[in-house]
Amino acid sequence: MKKLALSALLLFVGIFGTQVLANDTYLSIQENPSLGSYLADLDGKTLYIFTNDVAGNGASACNGGCAGAWPPYLIDSAEVVAPEGFSGDLSVITRTEGTFQLAYNGMPLYYFAGDTKAGDVTGHEVGGVWFVASYTAPKASESSSSAASTEVAASSPSGGSLLTRASKSSTIAISEDDRFVMMVNPEDDSVAIFSTAGDVQTAKVRTGSEPSAVVIHPDNQTAFVANRADATVVKLAGIDSAQPKLVATTAVGSEPTGLALSPTGKTLYVAEWAEGRISVIDTATMQVIGAIDGPSNPRAVSVTNNGNADDSDELIVVPEFYGAPISAAAEATDQTRTGLLRLYKTSDLSSFGSINFSPLDSGFVPEGTSNGTVMTSPNQFFNAVVQAGKVYIPSISASPAGPPKFNGNVFPVLYVADITSMQEDKSTTGTLNLA
Length: 435
Hints:
mainly beta
């Protein structure tokens, strides 16, 4: 472990009548080869966050016996001021017994009773709800000129870079400069990084339980991974190096399965399949800053890209995974459902409208039948690829009416929509059964 001195970075000023922190600072920053920068007390004892806490609500969800195993980090003041050059917000919550607990970005900070010395991180990922309090340093231009601030700023995404295409995630991602490929490994809870120059694996990083999707920042140095079982999104820095680091973990809703970035990479959108929500994360602070509650089961999310540096004029593209029933009477027939693609504005997360997809003729006569070709209904929209004003959605469409036949009940249909007209493209270059 390497302790980064903050005597220069954490300068506390008592002007303008603000209250300063006692003893210069309550915090130090520690480094861990796997976890990156994180918060600790002045003696280097690791501090943790509890994802059952609600950021900013001024309360702790860990009391009684829980507080015995996870002692709150108590301070002697009811007010704090984040020092100049410090990345993130400091605040204080008043616990039920009247003591004052320090909070970082609205999340109360705790010790773990199982840690016996400075630098121990044995509480990380306990129960899937306890995590080291990751520290994301400010960009060099925003921090003090001290050596400490320069050193910790290396984990921040660099500014000025832009994505050149619409963003979406998958189990595999390639960097904008085509130098690196990343792949999630849900079997061992890791991501692997490969160099395209020599087709060799350059690194492997454990990210959390069941990583399901990865997307790469336009700086070609930072990546974000959704952990489906943990219900977290993690930030990896230095993916272009031999020792990439996990530098931040953010709790999100149930079963995150899709990610997408705004063109500048400043905002990350998370499709929470079981939660029925799109969470919005500030990639600099890794704090959830908004949500879209309209979707029911979004497995994927994409963000358009018109080529400029203005993130506010794009659309968030959200396919509903399951087809929507046309009517109760229509269930279990081959024309039972319609597909739905929702669009939202990046400017304010409001709805931009939706596009519906109709059942189509599969073109197949099931083996051993004589009733002609079967219809098939949109279902299982796995992703949404945006290209040249069109959205392409791979699916497993359903024809549930009997008899059960290998070539008569499910079909690999690619649905196509035109964003300008907000209509399904049924032309010869549009929706197509790929079977």
